[in-house]
Design a protein that fits this description.
The longest helix has 30 residues. This protein is elongated. It has about 750 residues and is of the alpha+beta class. It has seven helices and 43 strands. The strands form eleven sheets. Strands 30, 31, 34, 35, 36, 37, 42 and 43 form an eight-stranded antiparallel β-sheet that branches. Helix 2 runs antiparallel to helix 3.
C-alpha cells in the first residue's frame, strides 16, 4: 500500500512539474511579440517578384500597406513586430530594385523599392505574408489587399524640390542617421555602397550653395565619419564615409530622406565577469515563476530559448525556486548557476555546465598535462635573423633577465625567470651576424617567431624643421643748438677792444688793454709811412682798427650740439658793436635687420638628434701675473661656444601625431670685455628654449617668442632757461631712442612614409 502511495506521489509531482513547464512555455509564447525572422524572394515569369515575409510564430500580424508615387515605393507596416531580418536586400528583377526592413517603436516597416509604379497582391501562407509585385505593365487597378490604408499614402510630389537642410543624429544604439530634408515632395533618391562610402544620388533636386559642404561627424562616435554634399548636373550627390562592419538602410517620407548606418550586431558571446566591471547581457527576455523546479529542467528551458547546445555534468542536480520577470535569458542562466554553485564554459555554440570545483579541477589537469607535454617534448634549435633591431636587445626582452652574454654571444642563465621561453628553453645571440639562436620546443619556437616578427619592424623616422627668426628695429633722433654773442667798445684814443678770445690789429700783433696807447702810436706811424710811399689812403686800415677772429667752442655762450650731427645750419649777425653766431644741428638714425636660421634634422622614433653650427671663440687669459698687467703671467687659451643648436627627441603617438622634447639654442658674439691683467674676454648673447609639445603631423607650431622694446627720451638743457616756452629751445638739446627686438621659434615635424625610408 505504501509503495502504491509512493508511486502516486511521484507521479503527481511529475505531472505538476510538467504542467508548470507547459504553462511556462505557453506564457512565454503569449508574452513574446511577433518577430520577422527573414525576407525571401522568388523571381516569377513576366518580371514579377514574390516576396515572403516569414515570422517566427503565428498568427501573421495584420499589415497596413500604402504606396508612394515619386519615388515609387510600397510600404508595409507590421504592428507589434520585432525585426530580425536583414536591413536591406538587393533584388534587381523586373520593377523591384530591393527591399528594406526597419524596426522602431514596437513596429516594423518593410519598404519595397521600385523602379516604377507597379501593382501588388498579398496573401497569408501559414506563418508567412506573401507579397507579389508586378512588373509595371499590368493594370494599375489590379486588386490589392483590403487592409490598405490610403490615408497614410504620401501626397503627390511636385517636380524639382530643393534641399532645405542636411542634418545628422546619433541613435540610441550608436547608429548614425543622415537626414536630408526637402522643401516639398517629389525628390528621387538612390543609394549605392562602394567600399567604405555610401553614395546617395538625388535626382531632379536643387542644392543651395550654402549646403554644398563637408560635415565632419567623428565626435558623434558612430560608424559615419563624414558627409560631403555636392551639386551635379541632374541634382545632387551625398558621399557618406563610413567605417567598420556596418548595416545600412534608408527610407523616405514626403519631404525627408533618411539614411541609417548601424554597426553589425556581434555574435552572441558568453558574458564574463571582469574585475571592476559588470557583465553585459543581450539575450531575449524571459519570465520565470517556478517553485522547486529541478535544475536540469530549468537548464533545458534556457537551452530551448537560447537555441544553444547545453551539456550538463552528471553531478548537476537538485532543485531551484525562481521568480524572474522580463530578464535576459543569459542573465537568468547566471542566476541559476550562482544559486547552485555551478559554472559554465563555452566553446562555440556548446555550453558545458558543471560544479565550480569540477571545472577548476579539469582546467588544472589540462594545464598540468600541457606542462608535462612541454617537459617531454623534443628540443629543436632555430636561427632567427634580425633585420631592424639588435639581436642582443630582443634576446633580453624574450628572457627578461635570464639571458647572460659577453662579447659577441650569450646564453641562458638562471631558471627563476624564463620570460617567453619554456622551462627548458634558452636563447643566445650572435652580434656579428645580428642573429638569435633559440633552443626550445617546436610549438614554443613557432610562438617566438610570431612574437619576433612583431618586434622586428622598421622604426618610423621624423623630419624636424625649425626656424629661428630674430628681427630688430632701431630709431634714434637728436636735435641740438650752439650760439654765442660778442660785444666791443672803443677807447678814448679810438682803439676798439674786443671780448673775443683772440683779436689782432692791422699789423697782425696781438693787443690788449695794457698797450692800447703804444699800439695806437705804432699804427699812426705805420699809416703815415705807407701814404708817403704812395699808397692810397682809402685802401689802408685806419690806425687803431681791430680785426675779429672767432674760432673754437669758446666762441659760444650755449654749446649743446647733436652728438653725431648729420646736418648743421649756421647763422651770423654782425653789427657795429656786437656779433651773434647761431648753429643748429640734427641727426636721425633708422635701422632694420632680420636674421632667419633654419636647422633641419631627421631622426628615428624616440631617438635623440642633435645638429650644431657656429664657432668657438678663443681668447687668452694670464695667470700668476706679478705686476697685474697682461702678458706678464702664464698665458692660457680658452674657448667659448657661439653656436646654433637643435636638440630634439620625437615620439610618434598611436593616432599619428608627434610628441617633441626639444631644445633650441642660438648664441652670438656680442663683444669683448677687458679684464685687468687677463686681456679681453668675449661676451655671448644667448637665446634658447627648452620645452615639450604635441604637434600634428606636418603642422607648424610656435614654440615661443621674446619681444623687447626700448624707449628712451633725453633732454640736456640750461636750468631755468631751457624751460621757458618758445625761446627755451635755444637752451636745450633733445634726443629720442626707440629700439625693438623680436625672437620667434617655429618647429614643424613630418613623419616620413615607409616608401621614403
Amino acid at each position: 500500500m505504501k509503495s502504491v502511495r509512493g508511486h502516486v506521489r511521484r507521479a503527481s509531482r511529475c505531472l505538476t512539474a510538467g504542467l508548470l513547464i507547459f504553462g511556462l512555455v505557453w506564457a512565454g509564447d503569449a508574452l513574446a511579440a511577433t518577430t520577422l525572422k527573414n525576407i525571401g524572394y522568388d523571381k516569377l515569369p513576366g518580371g514579377r517578384v514574390e516576396l515572403r515575409l516569414n515570422f517566427d510564430k503565428g498568427p501573421v500580424p495584420q499589415p497596413k500597406i500604402f504606396t508612394t508615387g515619386n519615388p515609387p515605393r510600397i510600404a508595409v507596416d507590421l504592428p507589434d513586430t520585432d525585426n530580425a531580418a536583414a536591413r536591406h536586400i538587393d533584388i534587381g528583377s523586373g520593377s523591384t530594385a530591393g527591399v528594406s526592413a526597419v524596426s522602431a517603436g514596437g513596429r516594423t516597416r518593410v519598404v519595397v523599392e521600385l523602379l516604377r509604379e507597379s501593382p501588388y497582391r498579398t496573401r497569408v501562407d501559414g506563418n508567412s505574408l506573401v507579397l507579389t509585385v508586378g512588373n509595371g505593365a499590368e493594370s494599375q487597378s489590379a486588386p490589392t489587399v483590403s487592409n490598405t490604408d490610403p490615408s497614410k499614402a504620401l501626397p503627390t510630389a511636385i517636380s524639382g524640390p530643393a534641399v532645405s537642410n542636411i542634418d545628422f543624429r546619433r541613435g540610441p544604439n550608436g547608429e548614425g542617421r543622415v537626414l536630408v530634408s526637402f522643401n516639398g515632395a517629389g525628390a528621387n533618391a538612390d543609394m549605392q555602397r562602394k567600399s567604405d562610402h555610401l553614395l546617395v544620388n538625388l535626382s531632379h533636386v536643387n542644392l543651395p550653395a550654402n549646403l554644398a559642404q563637408r560635415l565632419d561627424v567623428l565626435d558623434f562616435a558612430t560608424p559615419v565619419q563624414s558627409i560631403s554634399t555636392r551639386a551635379t548636373g541632374s541634382g545632387a550627390t551625398l558621399d557618406i564615409a563610413i567605417k567598420g562592419n556596418v548595416e545600412t538602410s534608408a527610407y523616405q517620407t514626403a519631404d525627408q530622406y533618411v539614411v541609417e548606418v548601424a554597426p553589425k550586431k556581434a555574435a552572441l558571446t558568453d558574458p564574463r565577469l571582469t574585475r571592476g566591471q559588470e557583465p553585459v547581457y543581450s539575450g531575449n527576455r524571459v519570465t520565470f515563476n517556478f517553485q522547486d523546479i529541478p535544475v536540469r529542467s530549468a537548464l533545458q528551458l534556457l537551452a530551448d530559448i537560447s537555441g544553444l547546445n547545453l551539456v550538463a555534468s552528471d553531478t548537476v542536480g537538485g532543485s531551484v525556486t525562481l521568480r524572474l520577470v522580463n530578464v535576459p535569458w543569459d542573465q537568468a542562466l547566471d542566476v541559476v548557476l550562482r544559486a547552485k554553485s555551478l559554472d559554465k564554459r563555452r566553446n562555440g555554440n556548446v555550453i558545458w555546465i558543471a560544479p565550480q570545483k569540477e571545472l577548476a579541477d579539469y582546467e588544472q589537469n589540462v594545464a598540468t598535462a600541457r606542462l608535462k607535454a612541454e617537459d617531454n617534448a623534443e628540443l629543436v634549435t632555430d636561427y632567427v635573423p634580425i633585420s631592424y633591431g639588435k639581436a642582443q636587445d630582443i634576446a633580453k626582452l624574450l628572457t627578461q633577465g635570464s639571458m647572460q652574454g659577453s662579447g659577441g654571444s650569450g646564453g641562458s642563465g638562471s631558471n627563476n625567470s624564463r620570460g617567453f621561453l619554456s622551462q627548458r628553453g634558452s636563447v643566445s645571440f650572435d652580434e656579428r651576424t645580428n642573429t638569435l639562436l633559440i633552443n626550445d620546443t617546436p610549438q614554443k619556437i613557432k610562438e617566438l617567431r610570431d612574437l619576433i616578427a612583431v618586434l622586428d619592424k622598421p622604426v618610423q623616422q621624423v623630419l624636424i624643421e625649425s626656424r629661428i627668426v630674430v628681427a630688430t628695429d632701431d630709431f634714434t633722433r637728436e636735435l641740438g643748438v650752439r650760439w654765442g654773442v660778442q660785444a666791443t667798445h672803443t677807447t678814448p684814443g679810438g682803439n676798439v677792444i674786443s671780448t673775443s678770445p683772440t683779436a689782432t690789429n692791422s699789423a697782425g700783433l696781438g693787443i690788449n688793454t695794457s698797450n692800447v696807447q703804444s699800439q695806437y702810436a705804432y699804427d699812426v706811424a705805420n699809416y703815415n709811412q705807407q701814404v708817403a710811399n704812395g699808397q692810397t689812403p682809402s685802401t689802408l686800415p685806419r690806425p687803431g682798427t681791430v680785426t675779429y677772429q672767432t674760432s673754437g667752442d669758446g666762441a659760444f655762450n650755449v654749446n649743446l650740439p647733436a652728438t653725431t650731427p648729420a646736418g648743421q645750419l649756421g647763422l651770423a649777425i654782425l653789427g657795429k658793436n656786437y656779433l651773434v653766431d647761431l648753429e643748429l644741428s640734427a641727426a636721425q638714425t633708422e635701422g632694420r635687420s632680420e636674421v632667419v636660421s633654419s636647422p633641419r634634422v631627421i631622426t628615428a622614433n624616440q631617438q635623440e638628434a642633435v645638429i650644431r653650427q657656429g664657432q668657438e671663440i678663443g681668447y687668452v687669459t694670464y695667470q700668476n701675473s706679478a705686476t697685474g698687467s697682461a702678458g706678464s703671467g702664464t698665458a692660457t687659451v680658452a674657448f667659448k661656444d657661439a653656436v646654433l643648436e637643435l636638440k630634439v627627441t620625437p615620439t610618434i603617438t598611436a593616432d599619428g601625431r608627434v610628441y617633441l622634447q626639444i631644445n633650441v639654442t642660438k648664441d652670438a658674439l656680442a663683444g669683448y670685455v677687458t679684464v685687468p691683467g687677463s686681456g679681453q674676454v668675449p661676451t655671448i648673447d644667448t637665446r634658447s628654449i627648452n620645452t615639450s609639445v604635441l604637434v600634428d603631423n606636418g603642422q607648424t607650431v610656435v614654440l615661443g617668442g621674446i619681444y623687447e622694446v626700448t624707449k628712451q627720451n633725453t633732454i640736456t638743457k640750461v636750468p631755468g632757461l631751457g624751460d621757458i616756452p618758445g625761446i627755451g629751445v635755444l637752451f636745450r638739446k633733445t634726443s629720442r631712442q626707440n629700439d625693438k627686438a623680436e625672437l620667434l621659434i617655429f618647429v614643424t615635424p613630418r613623419i616620413l612614409s615607409e616608401t621614403l625610408q
